[in-house]
Amino acid sequence: MSGASSEVNSSDWLYAFAFADYPVRGALACLPDTWQALSSRRQYPHPMDHWLADMLTSIALIRSGIKASGRLSLQIRGQANPHLLSVECNEHWQLRGMARYRAQLALADKLSEIDSGLLTMQLEPPGEGVSYQGVVPLAGDRIAEAMQNYFQKSEQLPTCFILGFTEQCPTGLMLQRMPGEMAEDDWRRINMLAATLSHHELQQQQPEKLLKKLFYEEQIELFAAQSPRFCCSCSRERVSRMLLQLGHEEASSIVAEQGRVDVACEHCGEGYGFDQIDIEHLFASQDAAAPVSDRVQ
Ligand SMILES: [Zn+2]
Predict the structure, then answer these.
(1) CA 265 to centroid of ligand 1, rounded, Å
(2) pLDDT tens for residues 58-96?
(3) Are 191 and 240 part of one and the same domain?
(4) What pLDDT digit, counting tens, does each position of 107-119 carry?
(5) What pTM was estimated for this model as a whole?
(6) Which of 97, 41, 87, 81 is nearest to 62 (CA)?
(7) Continuous segment of H or E residues that includes residue 229
(8) Are residues 141 and 216 in the same domain?
(9) Domain total for the chain?
(10) How far apart are CA 62 and CA 64, in angstroms?
(11) C-alpha of residue 268 to centroid of ligand 1, in Å
């Protein structure tokens, strides 16, 4: 049976850090293998690839500041082509992402062309439900601006994102000012120093050296390295649950029309096929089972 979660080996890294003298935390990440795994399964035209790469880096950086388990997701929805961009990262640093768009129609060139755009972030703990959700109107021409705006509006936490994506390598730095005393000038100075960071440096240098060089006057505590990687959580079982929700009649009518039900995962492209016998078995085994309301993927 196909459909085991596809986890990919990766040399990608993420480091969280904190300033000793200020209520500022941050994270640095470099995600070429994660991006390679995502984009080799489904290719996205420009600039959608850039937006997805920046969102992937952002969600990993943000995940570093959250202790609770569960899937943290970031979505942009709007009236445009694409109409959905979505990325996720769980507490095991497994990432995935996808966009929904119509290949035959013109694509948005700029983020600001996404009409009535909304940026949503949510945390879903293991099991059911949502433990946190924030939604703000999409603002800015770049994902970094949209993320800064999100934290300002939704959390009232000044947050700076420096995101890079060249040569198929997403990199990023996040700085977040937590509640606590800090002179406005110090926050501004740290941000100006961060803005001098180049994408090339993030790709090439050791994080420890990089932070020392960047914030040479500051005491910084660097936390243990994390290893983000692409992993899709789709499975035949989850697709089965989706078919059960669809109902026996609807599933049977698809089989009658097309000979079978074929479902492809939007994140990784993995295909799941069900013929007439599979469908009958599935609904027969449902019998006394409790209704299932899990998400499909
Ligand atoms: Zn999948």
Answers:
(1) 5
(2) 999 999 999 999 999 999 999 999 999 999 999 999 999
(3) no
(4) 999 999 999 999 9
(5) 0.90
(6) 87
(7) strand 229-232
(8) yes
(9) 2
(10) 5
(11) 4
